[in-house]
Amino acid sequence: MALLPRGFGIGAVSAAFVAASGCSVVGGSATPDYPAGSIDAALMSMHDAGGRVGSALWFRIDAGKPDAAQSVTPPDCQVAATPASDLVFGNSWTGFRLSTFQENANTWDHSLTQAVGRYDNAERARDAFAKLTQGLTTCGDKEIAVLGTADAVDSKWRNHIDVSTGDTARWNAEQLDATDWRCYREARLKEAVLLQVALCQSGNGQPAATAIADKVAAKL
């Protein structure tokens, strides 16, 4: 089982975040019916996500606004290290949802996060996507240290960018202080919506992350 250090996975949130941002933590609950066209209706369910990643997912974390970005070194890698934070999504969205699914609360083999921000016009969504891609380009393949209490290093990472176009970014974040653990990431710009998917696991999770992003994007 793997434990993903807090901060780099876009769904890895602390208890303080749960308290401060209206997150709900759910274990194995039934999926409610959401209005067609809503962000929640577009997100893949925990059951379906488990089928995609090949593991039963029983624990989830939900958030209604982006988390604040964590401190990192070098500082110009902050966007690249926390891509679903308020540094990217900003505060001009009209709707936001972040959901993370895992096998368990504290240890897991897979951690899947879906994050969607909806804006009142396409330009604002495009600006958010541009912040993300610019941050990835600026950081490149530098070693990133995610800082925790008293600026102690929580974990170390390096990004590998696979695709970057006007509406799609695909990359993976390799954890340098762990064995064979990566977060496979996909970002999509679709009209006035910015979607991000991250699947953290051992082995190649990119095909599953891309397939999940395709499914969610088709419903937005």
TrEMBL record:
Residues 36-219 form the PknH-like extracellular domain. Coiled coil: none annotated. Transmembrane segments: none annotated. InterPro entries: PknH-like_Extracell, PknH-like_Extracell_sf. It holds the Pfam family PknH_C. It comes from the Bacteria. This is PknH-like extracellular domain-containing protein. It comes from Nocardia aurantia. The lineage of its organism: Bacteria, Bacillati, Actinomycetota, Actinomycetes, Mycobacteriales.
